[in-house]
Amino acid sequence: MKILVINTGSSSLKYQLIDTMNEAVLAKGNCDRIGIENSFIKHTKMGSDAVVIEKDMANHKVAIQQVLNVLTDKDIGVISNMSEIAAVGHRVVHGGERFHDSVIIDDEVMKALRECIELAPLHNPPNIIGIEACKEVMPNTPMVAVFDTAFHQTMPKHAYLYALPYEIYEKYGVRKYGFHGTSHKYVANRAAEILGKSIEDLNIITCHLGNGASICAVRKGKSVETSMGFTPLAGLAMGTRCGTIDPAVISYLMDKEKMSVKDINDYLNKKSGVLGISGVSSDFRDIEAAADEGNERASLAIEIFCYRVKKYIGEYAAVMDGVDLLIFTAGIGENNPLVRKKVLSGMDYMGIDVDWEKNEVKGKELDISAPGSKVKTMVIPTNEELAIARETLKLLK
């Protein structure tokens, strides 16, 4: 069975076609600059070089059709016709409290997704556009929504409620939701599988460290705490997001800098984090290079990022009454030995002992623990697309 996985942004669309018989990626790519001049699709048939096709894509419907065109193309395609696609799995950022798991999309689900727009105004609208575009082009193909928030719906109430008047939660649903759930769930289960242990016997801390970053406490296979909150702005200092700050800073800055609500929202989401601290970049490769050349602010940005990761690890070990397994994933977590070393150094008091030679690994599954370490530490590349394909297959069955 072949499943098409779609991840839609406001002006982009990423896709993978996965054969669930052997979980092989047959083709992948992305449509960029949708609705903007000079739009193009970058398509890769596995085993072949990437092909870039300049194509006017006025909207997401045109982009979806272009994806189907390249997938069925006689030279660069991998299927003879679109009827070979058994289903489409869509990444949806926010499912609110309504969705505790993935769902087959119907009219009621679409209505609920629209109701969640006010909880994720930047993310859910393009997700919905992608679903509607697919339904229009592929009306007889089953569609599944896989939510970033669903995995975290097992958090206890004392973990997800804010200390605001309770009526605010009842009226508006203001609470911690958490994100990156598909990734946290995938790497936790994958690590347990590699170790040959039941996930129900493990306390796991998963560190999804990329331009957006979050940490999750997974007790017996269920999320019990996570660092992102009502929106993906909370928690760690990230590429351009400030992470958790004193909320009084917001009104103070709005007054001092004469900022509107939109201004402060952009400031905290797009101009802060390690970009704001370093003044160099939101990309850790650029920041590390600047730090190596003696840029003090770049060095400080790295220190702040690593300090907060370490702080959350200690906090979540306390929440679960101990930890058995620590996982690093996503762009920085998988590929940055320096960040892992700064986070993990001096944590032997927790039973975390690392083989620093093994820690030099990039982008590969590996147990980097030293022999005899009480807590296992692993690098596990995330695979959200495969996780979405698995969820889609499970629902079809």
Automatic annotation (TrEMBL):
What processes in GO biological process is this protein linked to?
A: acetate metabolic process; acetyl-CoA biosynthetic process
Annotated active site residues, numbered on this chain, are D148
Q: Where in the cell is it found?
A: Cytoplasm
Main EC class the enzyme belongs to? transferase
Family statement drawn from the similarity comment of this UniProt entry: Belongs to the acetokinase family.
Q: Which HAMAP family match?
A: Acetate_kinase (MF_00020)
Q: How does it assemble?
A: Homodimer.
Protein name per the record = Acetate kinase
Q: Which organism is it from?
A: Pseudobacteroides cellulosolvens ATCC 35603 = DSM 2933
